[in-house]
Design a protein that fits this description.
heterodimer; A: mainly beta; 7-stranded mixed beta sheet; 11 strands; globular; B: mainly beta; 6-stranded mixed beta sheet; 0% helix; 52% strand
Chain lengths: 114, 116
């Protein structure tokens, strides 16, 4: 069983909708991540939060807005998305210090933009 | 910059047999970590095995073992006694030492099919 939980598992949204992806981890990790994975491709890093502060934004468009309410939760707010944003969105976590050498992934949220 | 190369886009193996997946990488770092992740059709990315570059001993996890050749920058995964549940995409990944910061560099993946 995964200790990184993502909801919803599947989401279909229109280009004018506002929705959110949610992630929760129960491993006491202080670093959390959002990755985007297109079909038949490896995951690509989007955002990194370290101790609840955004530390890396890999030039992601502003229609994706991350939020880290506390050390266990990570959200990804979605607004005015494009069909090409359809993908699997993976949340992950790790230790935030030098022990953070293993990243654990959730099951992912499938997003379809219509 | 680091790169990870998986030269086998697809492989197949008969159930109960052994298969080896190849991975090479390029880096100027001396301390780093290497990983194999498995992604079955359910799409969850599952950690299979991890290797610290400073350890000469090859990592093993039950039926999974690696052949880590630091000088050759090679990191292959051997799956013994293959099972139907091993069918998945396998990604080799690299991470610099000194905190993760999400800095996993993935290869393009090898799709493994285990046939009954």
């Amino acid at each position: 069983d995964t200790e990184v939980t993502q909801t919803p598992k599947h989401l279909v949204m229109g280009m004018t909708n506002k929705k959110s992806l949610k992630c929760e981890q129960h491993m006491g990790h202080r670093a959390m991540y959002w990755y985007k994975q297109k079909a038949k491709k490896p995951p690509e890093l989007m955002f990194v939060y370290s101790y609840e502060k955004l530390s890396i934004n890999e030039s992601v468009p502003s229609r994706f807005s991350p939020e880290c309410p506390n050390s266990s939760l990570l959200n990804l707010h979605l607004h005015a998305l494009q069909p090409e944003d359809s993908a699997l969105y993976l949340c992950a976590s790790s230790q935030a210090d030098s022990r953070g050498n293993t990243i654990y992934f959730g099951e992912g949220s499938w997003l379809t933009v219509v | 910059a680091q790169t990870v190369t998986q030269s086998q886009p697809e492989m197949s193996v008969q159930e109960a047999e052994t298969v080896t997946l190849s991975c090479t990488y390029d880096t100027s770092e001396n301390n780093y970590y290497l990983f194999w992740y498995k992604q079955p059709p359910s799409r969850q990315m599952i950690l299979v095995i991890r290797q610290e570059a400073y350890k000469q001993q090859n990592a093993t996890e039950n039926r999974f073992s690696v052949n880590f050749q630091k000088a050759a920058k090679s990191f292959s995964l051997k799956i013994s006694d293959s099972q139907l549940g091993d069918t998945a995409m396998y990604f080799c990944a690299f991470m610099k030492y000194g905190g993760s910061q999400g800095n996993l560099i993935f290869g393009k993946g090898t799709k493994l099919s285990v046939k009954p």
